[in-house]
């Protein structure tokens, strides 16, 4: 069977695009190189001194893991030199990362979560890099963050690298969702999951049920719907929760299911849940949409939310279409 590398795949997709200039391919190639370096470090994590915390707290108020910091540095270093970006934004950086003077720039804007799920990394749990790419108009003023904040629907590409038993890349440019597995013997991502479609109804629900007491009534009703037998499947869904969004999302994408991180009342300073709109919810919402699924904050389609801040948080319900619609229906019923 002929093996298709990710570069070939991107070039083939670019050929069909009237805007193909090769700059996007360059962007993706740099991103892939950064991910290969991160994958190498993640794979040997137990052997060298990269586990544990750095002692710092990031912009999100969370402990910074050494591997988080490493992944962030690698991504920024490679991407600011790619020559095709006007700016970058990372979950780990409070402000936009601007392209240093003297480096060529372009009009793509990249946002990423360098190492999602990293709070579990010391236990060898799967983690990943989530990315979101926008193409901005010529001459956009990068000094004004507001000019860069676009709805998720305007992404031109989104996806993630999953550092698991194998390292995978899953991406979409709006023409199907495609999965590639890194063949370590040749150092290439090879097409392993062409045109992924997620089932319309899932068999898994993923949520941190320890927060049950802190949820509102509609959230409890939605989770009870999946636990019980009075649902479209006529039997209970299985519960799976790794606590690493990218890993939970990937499993549900392939098998069908719904992932929820709703608002809860534990921390009143976080009235919109934990997950970030720009670097987590939007890219995964773009992927699930092109795989036939759906993502909502309970009221709005995630992709239609106009961001107002770089590190905005959002409640997230994402996965198989009918399951997500059901949750939205329950929220709507309670709103009256
Ligand atoms: P991170 O980006 O700092 O790793 O935080 C996000 C992670 C998600 O991967 C995961 O879904 C969630 O936090 C788990 O949170 P909780 O432990 O509250 O269930
Ligand atoms: Mg994350």
Uncertain runs are none
Cα-to-Cα separation, first versus last residue: 55 Å
On the 0-100 scale, what is the average pLDDT?
Answer: 92
The helix/strand order is HHEEHEEEEHEEEEEHEHEHEEH
Question: How is the largest sheet built, in terms of strand order?
Answer: 4-3-5-6-7-8-9-10
* Class per helix and strand makeup: alpha+beta
Helical segment tally? 8
Number of extended strands: 15
- What is the general shape? globular
The amount of beta strand, in percent, is 15-25%
How would you sum up the major sheet? Answer: 8 strands, mixed
Helix fraction by DSSP (H/I, runs of at least 4): 25-40%
Bound molecules: 2,5-anhydro-1,6-di-O-phosphono-D-mannitol, magnesium ion
Using only C-alpha atoms, the radius of gyration works out to 19 Å
Describe the protein's topology.
Layout: H1 6-15, H2 23-43, E1 53-57, E2 63-65, H3 66-80, E3 85-90, E4 97-98, E5 108-116, E6 127-135, H4 145-148, E7 157-163, E8 167-172, E9 177-183, E10 188-193, E11 204-206, H5 217-227, E12 238-239, H6 245-255, E13 258-261, H7 277-290, E14 294-296, E15 316-319, H8 321-335
Parallel strand pairs: 3-5, 11-12, 11-13
Antiparallel strand pairs: 1-2, 3-4, 5-6, 6-7, 7-8, 8-9, 9-10, 13-15, 14-15
Helix pairs in contact: 1-2, 2-3, 5-8
The chain binds 2,5-anhydro-1,6-di-O-phosphono-D-mannitol and magnesium ion.
Magnesium ion (MG) is lined by residues 91, 113, 116, 245, 280.
Q: How would you describe this structure to a colleague?
A:
With 336 residues, this protein is of the alpha+beta class. The chain contains 8 helices and 15 strands. Helix 2 packs antiparallel against helix 3 (66-80) and helix 5 (217-227) packs antiparallel against helix 8 (321-335). The protein is globular and about 60 Å long. Bound molecules: 2,5-anhydro-1,6-di-O-phosphono-D-mannitol (AHM) and magnesium ion. Magnesium ion binds at residues 91, 113, 116, 245, 280.
């Amino acid at each position: 069977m002929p093996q298709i590398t990710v570069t070939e795949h991107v070039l083939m997709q670019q050929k069909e695009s009237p805007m193909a200039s090769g700059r996007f391919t360059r962007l993706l190639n740099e991103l892939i190189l950064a991910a290969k370096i991160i994958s190498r470090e993640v794979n040997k994590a137990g052997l060298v001194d990269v586990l544990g915390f750095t002692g710092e707290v990031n912009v999100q108020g969370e402990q910074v893991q050494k591997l988080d910091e490493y992944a962030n540095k690698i991504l920024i270093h490679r991407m600011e030199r790619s020559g095709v970006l006007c700016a970058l934004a990372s979950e780990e950086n409070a402000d936009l990362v601007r392209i240093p003077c003297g480096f060529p720039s372009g009009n793509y804007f990249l946002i990423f979560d360098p190492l999602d799920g990293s709070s579990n990394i010391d236990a060898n749990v799967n983690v990943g890099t989530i990315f979101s790419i926008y193409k901005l108009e010529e001459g956009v003023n990068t000094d004004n963050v507001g000019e860069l904040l676009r709805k998720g629907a305007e992404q031109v590409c989104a996806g993630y690298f999953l550092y698991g038993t194998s390292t995978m890349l899953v991406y979409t440019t709006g023409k199907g969702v495609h999965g590639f597995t890194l063949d370590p013997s040749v150092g290439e991502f090879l097409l392993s999951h062409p045109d992924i479609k997620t089932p319309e109804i899932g068999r898994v629900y993923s949520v941190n049920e320890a927060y049950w007491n802190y949820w509102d009534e509609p959230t409890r009703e939605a989770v009870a719907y999946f636990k019980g037998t009075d649902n479209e499947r006529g039997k209970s869904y299985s519960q799976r929760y790794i606590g690493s969004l990218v890993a939970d999302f990937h499993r549900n994408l392939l098998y069908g299911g719904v992932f929820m991180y709703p608002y809860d009342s534990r921390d009143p300073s976080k009235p919109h849940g934990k997950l970030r709109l720009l670097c987590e919810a939007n890219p995964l919402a773009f992927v699930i949409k092109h795989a036939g699924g759906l993502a909502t904050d309970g009221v709005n389609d995630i992709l239609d939310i106009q961001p107002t801040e770089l590190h905005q948080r959002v409640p997230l319900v994402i996965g198989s279409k009918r399951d997500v619609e059901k949750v939205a229906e329950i929220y709507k019923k309670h709103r009256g």
